[in-house]
Structure formats: C-alpha cells, structure tokens
Design a protein that fits this description.
This protein is an alpha+beta fold. It has 2 domains: about 180 residues, Deoxyuridine triphosphatase (dUTPase) (Deoxyuridine 5'-Triphosphate Nucleotidohydrolase, Chain A), CATH 2.70.40.10; about 70 residues. The chain is about 35% helix and about 25% strand. The strands form 3 sheets. Strands 3, 4, 6, 8, 9, 10, 12 and 14 form an 8-stranded antiparallel beta sheet that branches. Strands 2-1-7-11 form a 4-stranded antiparallel beta sheet. β3 and β4 form a beta hairpin. The longest helix is centred in the C-terminal third of the chain and has 53 residues. The chain is rod-shaped, with a radius of gyration of 47 Å. The protein starts with a helix and ends in a 10-residue tail after the last helix. The relative contact order is 0.12.
C-alpha cells in the first residue's frame, strides 16, 4: 500500500532519512513546510554532491573532490548523489522518479528504479542534459521523488543480502565515473570538426584569392605594357611623313629602272 504524508513523516522522525548524519526532528520545516520534502503521497530528495566525468580524482568534480554546484551544459553528463541518506525499514520499499521540474527542463535521468527494503545509503543518478540550455545543478535542489509503499517483511532484506557492503553507501568510485563520456551527444567534438572543415574551406578560398590576385596583377602588367607599345607606335606613326616617304620610294624605283634600261650588254666571244 502506498504511504501518505503522515506515514512518511512518522518514518522520517524514526530515522528513515538522515541529513548531515542526523534524523529529521518532527518540527523540522523540511518535512512540515511549506515548502516541504513530504508530498501528499511521496517524498522528495535533493541534490548533494556532484561528480563530473573525465575529471581526475583530485580535480573539482572528481571522486575525491565532488562539487556542490555545476552549470550543466547541453549534451553533458554528470552523476548526482542525494544529500539525504536513506535507512529504509525492512517493511518498506520505494520507487524513484524524476520530479516534473527536472524532466520538463530536458534533463534525462537514468531510471532510479526501486529501493529494496533494508537499504542503507544515498541514491545516485546519472543525468544527461538533452536540452539546448544550461541547467543549474546545486546542492538542495530537488532531484528525485520517491513513492514509498509497505510490504510484508522479507526473509532477507537488502542489508542481510549485502553483508560485505559498507553501510551506509556513500560516494562514487572511479569505475562508475570513468564509464561516462563528459559530452554524451559529442557536441564539442562535432562542433570542433565543423570548425575545422570551415577553416579548411576558408584556407582554400584564401589560396584561390591569392592566385587570382597574382593572375590579375600579371594581366594588369601585360595590359600596361601593351598600352605603352601602342602609344609608341602611335607616336612613330605621327612622326613619319608617309607622303614624302612614298615619293622617296617611288624615286628610287624609277632610278633603278632607268639604270637597268641603259645598261650595255656584255660583248660576245668569237671562236
């Protein structure tokens, strides 16, 4: 049976959830509200530590140095741990869902799934920003809604089945973080590839422009030289007295013809 607000508050004051290592007192505004983590038939949990892929263990966001605020870019991934620590009784189970504020902002959360009776520890979720805008991940912001329900006490609850697991479960290990890409949709690499393609195209255009510049300069020089030759010929044509030159040529031709006409033939030999 699904638990309602008064039953959830009773569990909280009995140590169902710890914040900062302590149970929540009955008059705590976080469970009495408004605003309250306790809803009519659900319980909201908030963000605590934030872990970022592709960070070394000591960098901000790494396994040994989680952050409490991160401006979450489009396409990026992160692992978020709840600020609250659960201590689920062996007669209670839970299902987790992303709150409306998160899902309608384009934040995809890997399904939190169910929480077994007897579980002790925080909850962790992988988030992917599928929107076109940044999203603020910050400590205290609601990140998951739990539906709590009563069950018959199992023969062996989670705590009994996991005797070697340190309790309560806390933190993220390097293996969990290293399995994720920082940029889920590979936006940054694709943007860089597009920029490189445009850079190559721009370089090709610059090469063609340089070649055209050389050709234009050569053609301009050729045209200038041709104009100079034409100008010199024009000046030469203007300087020559063509009529006088023709008369001189005609005079030379007539003189040569007269000389040939009066030329005496050579004497013939006798035998």
């Amino acid at each position: 049976m699904l638990l309602v607000d008064r039953e959830i508050r009773e569990l909280l004051t009995n140590g169902l959830i710890e914040i900062g290592g302590a149970a929540v007192p009955p008059n705590d505004p976080r469970i009495q509200g408004p605003p309250s983590l306790v809803q009519p038939a659900s319980l909201d949990l908030t963000m605590g530590r934030i872990y970022l892929p592709e960070k070394s263990y000591s960098e901000p966001g790494g396994t040994d140095n989680p952050v409490t605020y991160y401006r979450f870019p489009p396409g990026h991934t992160a692992i978020v741990e709840t600020r609250e620590t659960l201590r689920i009784p062996s007669t209670v189970g839970a299902f987790g869902f992303p709150p409306t504020e998160v899902s309608t902002s384009g934040i995809l959360m890997t399904n939190p799934g169910h929480v077994d009776p007897g579980y002790e520890g925080s909850l962790k979720f992988t988030l992917i920003n599928m929107s076109r805008q940044d999203f603020d991940l910050r400590e205290g912001r609601r990140i998951v809604t739990l539906l709590l329900f009563s069950v018959k006490k199992p023969d062996k609850d989670w705590a009994v089945l996991n005797p070697g697991v340190p309790k309560p479960i806390k933190g993220v290990d390097e293996g969990q973080l290293s399995r994720l890409f920082k940029d889920f949709r590979d936006i940054e690499r694709r943007a860089e590839a597009v920029a490189q393609r445009y850079a190559l195209r721009l370089k090709g255009v610059e090469t063609w422009l340089a070649l055209l510049g050389v050709l234009f300069t050569g053609y301009a020089s050729y045209c200038a030289a041709t104009r100079k030759v034409e100008d010199r010929l024009s000046h030469l044509e203007a300087a020559v007295d063509w009529k006088r030159l023709q008369e001189r040529v005609d005079s030379i031709v007539r003189a040569d013809s007269a000389r040939r006409a009066v030329q005496v033939p050579a004497p013939q030999r006798t035998h």
